[in-house]
Amino acid sequence: MINIYAQHLLSSLSSVQCDPLTLGSVPDARGTATQSPTLCHPITADPSTHTMGFVLHHYVFPKIHTVIQTHDFSSILVVGAYTRSPPAFITENEKGNKPFNWQRPTATIFHTPESKILQLNVLPGRAYVEHYAALLATYFARKALTGARIPTVHYVPPAPDACAPLLAASNLPYLGRIDVAILGYVDKLPGCMGPEGWETGMDQGAEGDALFAWKKRILRDGRCVAFVGCTACYWGDIGGQLIRALQVHNGAREAIYIGKLGTLDPRHLPNSVLATGSCSMFPDGSVVEWENILESAVQGVRGVVSGVHFTGATSLSETKEWAREWRDKVDWVDPEIGHMAKVSLEEGIRFGFLHVVSDNLSREGLEGLVDERKATIVADRMKLLEVVDSVLERYFNESDKNGN
Fold first, then answer.
1. Which residues have CB under 8 Å from 197's CB, separation 6+?
2. CB atoms within 10 A of CB 51
3. In three state form, how does the secondary structure of 328-391 look?
4. What is the pTM of this model?
5. What is the pLDDT of residues 264-274, one digit of tens each?
6. Contact between residue 52 and residue 59 where contact means Cβ atoms under 8 Å apart
7. Considering its fold, how many domains does the chain have in total?
């Protein structure tokens, strides 16, 4: 089980010299030990070379588990595992006042005769595990400047489909059969802010945490649209796993992702533009292209810009050098869109995205991810989300007319 694994494997971390190193066994999404994990060293972001500049620490610090901020450890291992019950500790800086995207990784502490070791339990996704390890490495690099003793940080990439059992065992199947899934920023959409409550399926016998909640709507042609929110963050390739789960468990035929992303185009000011497109590039140069199902609905809509997207594993790798390399190739940057589009093509799902441009990675000093709770930004984003609502209505009406 996961505790035995951690005690056995983590006690060996102080002797790790190579990158990567294969040792022992690693827990999957259900906490069951599987064989041959690859132990990896995370990247460390430097404010002097990162696109966020010297506000990087303000982005990193709120994401660090409070146990890590207040206790010393000899080693930290980041793994793909979803557990929110003891002995795991829930961080005190979760923002539970939000309906969605508020759960954060939990921490499990292990004591050996020689050391105190922490395992950070991250929703099982390769990009998310890598991202959180990079957050920790960057956090401790800053602490090291004060002379503080810092732990070693490693991560174990989970299997590509590690989240599938978790999604299958969640309340998602209780959503039932749907035709269209609207994902992401759904609780902020004006059309979803009415008095009707969010359904979870718990009254139908769903067990465990209500990881998902939804509101349904029947279009004039009889198709069922579900606005689906998630209490956890489905970063990176988890987004693709969610698309597959919606097809497998709910029969979804269309998916639209509403969210936020960065831009490499210096012309775009944050929180004034909506991004869409039909092509995403990955760091290795591979490309995924699809038919954007929102293409017709956004035609002529002011403030909506179509462009090429970049799918990266972690925002900590977005250096100024990286921005110079990719600025002439891509317009938008986020961790999920390419994965969602790729799985949509594999599963025969029609896909599109419409995202708020939240930050500009080619220009320092503008509004960014560390300013998101400012009243002016909240107001500007609400205006953009009103446009998103109108685009969705336009899409639903067009689909009704075309019989899609």
1. none
2. 24
3. CCCCEEECCHHHHHHHHHHHCCEEEEEEEEEEECCCCCCCCHHHCCCHHHHHHHHHHHHHHHHH
4. 0.91
5. 999 999 999 99
6. yes
7. 2
